[in-house]
Model the fold of this input.
Amino acid sequence: MDTVWILGDQLNRDVGALRGRAPAEARVLMIESATKLANGRWHRQRAHLVLASMRRFAAELRAEGFEVDYRTASSLPGGLEEHRRAFAPDRVLAMSPMSWDAVEMLTSNGVELSPNEQFLCSAAEFAAWADGKKSLKMEDFYRWQRRRLDVLMDGSEPVAGRWNFDADNREPPPKDGRDWPAPIVDELDVLDAQVAADIEQLCPDAFGEPASGLWATSRTGALARLDQFIEEVLPLFGPHEDSMLRSEWKLAHSALSPYLNLGLLHPGEVIKAAEVAYRTGRVPIASAEGFIRQIIGWREYVWGLYWLWMPEYGELNALDADQVLPPAFEGAPTQMACVAHTVAGIDKRGWSHHIERLMILGNLSLTAGVRPQAVVDWMWKSFVDGAEWVMVPNVIGMALFADGGRMATKPYASGGAYIKRMSDHCKGCAFDPTKRVGETACPFTTLYWDFLARNEEVLRPNHRLGNQLGSMRKLSDLDMVRQRATEIRSRLSAGDL
Done:
């Protein structure tokens, strides 16, 4: 009998080697790697989401009649070898994993791989689209996806006459804060309690609050959250998707990425639900288009770039950034209100939305010169939707410009003025976003100008930075700014800011 190996981020009955197979036709293998869990500082809710979801999926397969060999082993190859000794399968089959190293590991251990089906554009299709192009712009890929998938299209033209409504989706947070739909929270059960106890044993350096029921660990729970998002949240999504509020951690973001990344939801069903909501008049076009762009545009673009450029891409460091990860990211006290709030949210939920990741955590790491690989590793283990294929392009290319501009056309660096405009964090903060020198100068503002000066030679050819570099050269206090920036970088690395 064949064995179908289901990895922890492939929890879907209808994809890969398991799709269409009856219980009598294959045995299922699932492995928890004790070494991986013990390696590094995992957020408790990230570990809980993966382990509880795996165990529930195994129970569902057993209820369907499958024989499931679910085991904890020192490593994934070790668990595979134990399974082979116990069952002597004719073949071990698996859907292609979602990381470069995992593909290498499975193929070197004789596992037969089928293409990954958890995306709407395969790595091979993306490579064919990219072939011969001088630049790989996400907008071009997104429009190609819209056409070939026939999403939000009226014949050969985009619905409502425009491809992109992003200009309508950049409003600052509403002054009244607004009431946002409360997230679904499930009651924890016996399985959850066992997983929580196991995490304390298996993950000695685990951090963050334990699971609260906020994150679904079954397909049923994931579908409930998709339904709530479409009906209650998506109508509000568009205008404020780039906003940040102290009083509201999620705003109108879907928070569906953990379920998409584990296989509990498939992108096809998610975008179909959003399009139906638009076409039936329940959701405005700016909200529907903006959300669908995140799924079939940005998410699948990142997936494609990962497979196109790895493994060398993960080691890039074009700006020679060498600072350590700020201790503030791991909970050290900080006077920076926006950083303190974002990190507290990660500790509480293992999640923050994309603007907090890019324009607070990423922006600070970029302008301070933090080593990119340290940021990748921290984000991968800290966020419930962490995955190497997600974090490597988003951090190396988008947030830290460590690829020198292969992915993003300019560095996403900004001073405190952006944070003041798009959030309410600056009110009451110890630092003033309008100041670049002095004890109360906002670190984001000081580091922004220093970043431009420190990297001027590398950034000068970028035509999108001409005005910013010109303004930097005109600063009468640039020497004082750079002196203050040296102090800030030192204090940031020491956890004293």
User: Anything to note?
Assistant: Strands lie at 2-5, 26-33, 68-73, 92-95, 112-114, 153-154, 157-158. The domain at 123-187+217-309 is CATH 1.25.40.80 (Serine Threonine Protein Phosphatase 5, Tetratricopeptide repeat). The chain has three domains: 2-114, 123-187+217-309, 319-494. The chain is about 50% helix and 5% strand.
